[in-house]
Design goal:
It is a single chain. With about 100 residues, this protein is mainly α. About 45% of the residues lie in helices and about 5% in strands. The protein contains two helices and two strands. A two-stranded antiparallel ribbon has the order 1-2. A hairpin with a 6-residue loop joins strand 1 and strand 2. The longest helix is centred in the first third of the chain and has 39 residues, at about 5-40.
């Protein structure tokens, strides 16, 4: 009969194997996407150093209420008025 310690080790080992399998699949997908982007850059389908459209958009600011955005004194990036630090360079924006 299995004691508690052995059952715990078996369950933990099984969960670790499942997590490793899921993580490996995700890493393979990331690797394939990177290879595909490299191929497209080599063939001229996309420009080198293009911005990723997912990160290029500004998030909706539902609680801004018409407040003016603050400009970073270090890099000049526009930030929502509720931000304390710049979203581009992480410099402090001053007291809001």
């Amino acid at each position: 009969m299995l004691d508690v310690g052995t059952a715990y080790l078996l369950a933990t080992g099984a969960l670790l194997l499942v997590a490793l399998g899921v993580g490996a699949r995700a890493l393979v997908a990331i690797f394939r996407e990177g290879r595909e982007r490299s191929r497209k850059r080599r063939e001229g389908e996309i420009e080198r150093y293009t911005d990723d459209p997912v990160y290029d958009r500004d998030p909706a600011d539902p609680d801004a209420g018409g407040a003016t955005p603050s400009t970073c004194p270090q890099c000049g990036a526009e930030n929502a008025s509720r931000f304390t630090y710049c979203r581009e360079c992480a410099a402090p924006l001053g007291l809001n």
